Amino acid sequence: MYKPTLDYAQQLDKEDKLAHLRAQFHIPKDKDGNDWLYFTGNSLGLQPKQTQQYIQQELDDWAKYGVEGHFEARNPWMPYHEFLTNSMAKIVGAKPLEVVVMNTLTTNLHLLMVSFYQPTKTKYKIVIESDAFPSDRYAVQSQLKFHGFDTEDGLIEWKPREGEELLRIEDLEKIVDEQGDEIALLLIGGVNYYTGQYLDIKRIAEIGHAKNCMVGIDLAHGAGNISPELHDSGVDFAAWCTYKYLNSGPGSLAGLFVHEKHTHNKDLPRFAGWWNHNKETRFNMRQPFDVMPGAEGWQLSNPPILSMAAIRASLDMFEEVGMEALRAKSEKLTGYFEYLINQIDTASIKIITPSNPKERGCQLSIQVKNADKSLHKKLTENNIITDWREPDVIRCAPVPMYNSFEDVFRMVEKLKELL
Ligand SMILES: *Cc1c(COP(=O)(O)O)cnc(C)c1O
């Protein structure tokens, strides 16, 4: 149904109901003023033009009110994080009670493991994907060590089969079937950062829960990309950053999800600070700690408003567009990208991301034969921004918020030329 011509790509852009969104972002440009072909929204999303105004408003209110801004600012800072909750909950398919924006991703994973990784002498192992993001791997290794376990013995890797790149759910099932009595936690990337594979989160939760293992999902590459329906999936917890598909700026804050079944459990072990203490009595100061219900009960500190203002600017765009429309465009855009790459007659590259749109988000991971890094370098020299991930993959993410069908067409034309 697709056609490999510029005319056709431009026609798709004309028919695209979300095409107007591109103009609401700052698109980096080359020295001649042409837009870069930016395919790294999976690493750092582009800046919405309205972000500056959202941050400026908080700077102005800080100038005007000082500490009184906590109550007097146009968006009072005291409850500011609550302004983000509803839109964020929609993006990940959760109830507002289950979601909060706070800290950064790896920090949230640790705070969640304080509560949901409760090893005993015999049930203490953690399962991750063999291609887990390094920070997640280091985080679980350090949790094992912290609890006095050996990281070799305590870490179980869910690996692709010999000669394959993608994970098979049956293999996770087998691991948990055979070793479930020793496993305390599954911590899995919902969308794998390397291959772009979108795993069946609900099935992972069922597999883990059948053997009384806790199940946590890292959605760094899922939030704003796919619709994970976290509540219905039944996973115990999840966390994600907001600077990738959620366009909220470098190092911005992260999201945290705790399933409703745990949100009122005051007996869960957890770390405390004044921000997870009961809002009503927080400023009485001398009260004994009384934890808040909901995901807010994992907060520790009063949050950075300037960073939250940037998140709010982005979430307001998601709220307006809706994940459904974004996802529909995304499937078409990535489908077109895949079609064009598959038209290239070459044995030097291969897409390793699943071809089923239900098993991927927008990213395609292109494996380069003999791990030849020069192809990525040449793309960059031509203002086509992708990223190289060791050992041999170029990751490209056409993002439905701001990438066009023409972007994808031009990228693949250049790729063909370089090959
Ligand atoms: C991007 C990413 C991180 C980064 O963690 P920070 O704490 O935000 O630095 C961690 N895990 C995964 C899976 C990621 O994709």
UniProtKB/TrEMBL annotation:
Its EC number is 3.7.1.3. One of its GO terms (molecular function) is kynureninase activity. It catalyses: 3-hydroxy-L-kynurenine + H2O = 3-hydroxyanthranilate + L-alanine + H(+); L-kynurenine + H2O = anthranilate + L-alanine + H(+). GO terms for biological process: anthranilate metabolic process; L-kynurenine catabolic process; L-tryptophan catabolic process to kynurenine; NAD+ biosynthetic process; quinolinate biosynthetic process. Transmembrane segments: none annotated. It holds the Pfam family KYNU_C. The keyword Nucleotide-binding does not apply. Its cofactor is pyridoxal 5'-phosphate. GO terms for cellular component: cytoplasm. The keyword Zinc does not apply. The modification N6-(pyridoxal phosphate)lysine is found at residue 244. InterPro entries: Kynureninase, PyrdxlP-dep_Trfase, PyrdxlP-dep_Trfase_major, PyrdxlP-dep_Trfase_small. Signal peptide: none annotated. It comes from the Bacteria. Pathway: Amino-acid degradation; L-kynurenine degradation; L-alanine and anthranilate from L-kynurenine: step 1/1; Cofactor biosynthesis; NAD(+) biosynthesis; quinolinate from L-kynurenine: step 2/3. Keywords: Hydrolase, Pyridine nucleotide biosynthesis, Pyridoxal phosphate. Pyridoxal 5'-phosphate binds at residues 105-106, 133-136, 218, 221, 243, 274, 302. PANTHER family: KYNURENINASE (PTHR14084). HAMAP family: Kynureninase. Catalyzes the cleavage of L-kynurenine (L-Kyn) and L-3-hydroxykynurenine (L-3OHKyn) into anthranilic acid (AA) and 3-hydroxyanthranilic acid (3-OHAA), respectively. Belongs to the kynureninase family. Homodimer. This is Kynureninase. It comes from Tenacibaculum larymnensis.
